[in-house]
Recover the amino acids of this structure.
């Protein structure tokens, strides 16, 4: 079985389903850690609707979808912050397919997309509890650095030169 990655409209049914899975997982993980509970249905609906990610379209960004054996398996987004800096967004691989290299495939494809959009640097943010994500980014050459945004849920910031 192999991974393929291609641009995907952020509002396609497959992208929307993966966005829901991603948001549910990170929201539940946050609330279980901080509040001892999963995210309530109304909170999930609000969060999912608030971040439709329509800006992940060219020329200012791009959503990439990974497929494994032809089935939608994960996403990564690229959002241009300025003429030379791209932000990595929404890196996600469905749980049953983790550990098969999809995260690295998605990040490398996002870097290629960012370069094609003119980026010389990629930045991202994550949380302390997303240890798997932090390990992936470090393994792929991202270094922790100063904040590049004021996202209330961001706790760690990383960057990598794309040249």
């Amino acid at each position: 079985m192999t991974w393929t990655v291609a641009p995907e409209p952020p509002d396609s049914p497959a992208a929307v389903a993966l966005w829901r899975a991603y948001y549910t997982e990170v929201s539940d993980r946050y609330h279980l850690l901080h509040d001892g509970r999963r995210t309530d249905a109304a909170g999930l609906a609000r969060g999912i609707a608030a971040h439709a990610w329509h800006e992940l379209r060219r020329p200012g960004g791009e959503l990439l979808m990974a497929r494994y054996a032809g089935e939608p398996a994960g996403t990564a987004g690229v959002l241009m912050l300025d003429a030379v800096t791209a932000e990595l967004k929404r890196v996600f691989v469905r749980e049953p397919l983790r550990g098969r290299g999809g995260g690295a495939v998605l990040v490398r494809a996002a870097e290629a997309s960012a370069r094609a959009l003119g980026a010389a640097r990629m930045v991202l943010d994550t949380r302390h509890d997303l240890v798997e994500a932090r390990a992936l980014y470090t393994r792929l050459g991202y270094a922790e650095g100063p904040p590049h945004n004021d996202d209330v849920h961001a706790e760690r910031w990383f960057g990598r030169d794309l040249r």
